[in-house]
Design a protein that fits this description.
374 residues, alpha/beta, 9-stranded parallel β-sheet, 15% strand, globular
Length: 374
Amino acid sequence: MSSIPGTDEYGVDVEIRDADREAALAVRPGDVEPAEELTFARNVFVPLTTACRYTCTYCTYYDPPGEAELMSPEAVRETCRNGAAAGCTEALFTFGDDPDDRYTAVHDQLTEWGFDSIHDYLRRACEIALEEGLLPHANPGDQTREQMSHVADVNASMGVMLETTADVQAHGGPRAKNPGQRLHTIEVAGDLGVPFTTGILVGVGEDWSDRADSLLAIRALHKRYGHVQEVIVQPVSPNERWTEDPPSRETMRRVVAMARAVLPEDVAVQVPPNLADARALLDCGVEDLGGVSPVTKDHINPDYAWPALRELEDIADHGGVPLRERLPVYEHFLPNEGVENEWVSDRIGRAIESGERYQAVLSGEPLDASGPQH
């Protein structure tokens, strides 16, 4: 049995049994069944700021101090309004970890606008999204309990990529990411009852045991709290800061199959169709194609365009399965008549109940491939 690096520092009780690791490492694509359907969410990408305390060598999202700016409330509203007009249901809010921690200009701008912190501003941005008819899904990196609790009630779901439990050089530097801190954020979400998305990165210097440990750690926290709705299996792709070869097709097939075998049935396995060859992975247990935007680019991976809805339909056709649109919060977290629900706030519940677009998605109305397609 082994512990994940950094877990003691952050008080996260996650240990990996050797037998579980060995079982995960033995999984191959032929050991899992293909999903019976594919799902996706229609979203609009809202990057509140490209400031980040970390400087991961594979990431093109962050800008150095002096170059990163804050998206204004007016720009947030316009982006959300355009997304709602295009039929989106999700506002995906992203920013780097604690951007007002070392970016003086970001901190000063927040103060000028009347916000005490980036999470204070995130709360207002989520309220704007709700006002414009979108369900917020915030992915603001590592969070303390205080930070997450400040914005949880205005989010339908939240997320952070675990990435890896390994201590990899790609995370190097004086502000290196700590696996224990990431796991702490996932645990906080469970303790607060927040439906959560997480995932692993493939190809940042981790080995096969690291991949197994990452998935097993996620499984352990989900079994404790029941809050993980999906796990993304994402290959690291070449960009202006990362020139290493991406993981091979065979590697991705094995990792996706491992994820499907390790994770409980109520946790979906997702691959991003703009970064991975989804067709080659369908028989490995892929169930979800993630959030795809008809109006905004992938600001985290700007070199890789979102596929249009018709392309998603082609992927599903290739696998011989139906394609279904979903909300940013999975349906089993939503209130059901006569069943007590503590997963979504009253505010989010009322928004979903009264939103015609949300109800259309839940009722399974036919997908509309018209409208903006990049």
